[in-house]
Amino acid sequence: MGAGSCAITDAYNAAAFKKVAHCIVPPSNKFDLTDQFDFALGVRNALDLALEYGMRSILYRHPFLLFDRLVAKILLLTVKRWLDESPYSGAMERVVIL
After folding, report:
1. pTM for the complete prediction?
2. Which domain holds residue 30?
3. Does residue 53 fall inside a structural domain?
4. Is there a domain that residue 1 lies in?
5. For residues 79 and 85, what is the distance between their CA atoms, to the nearest angstrom?
6. 23-74: pLDDT as tens digits
């Protein structure tokens, strides 16, 4: 699995969650155009996988969202584009970004 890849596992004892998406994101120290693409790919893959696993909502929490405007912007734009363009987006009831 490389950057942009995701896997879904059971959430086990996490009270509010049934599944957890584990995505490989690029390192934050350079974040060039390739890294930006890989990050957006991971966001889209998590959305697609969530629906494949029958989930109707997804929560994104990324440690860099608090202080990296570029990461936050890519996340927001990628989710918006997926919601606008994906033929499967109608099945997603809620997207939360913390």
Report:
1. 0.84
2. 6-97
3. yes
4. no
5. 10
6. 887 776 677 888 889 889 999 999 999 999 999 999 887 666 656 788 888 8
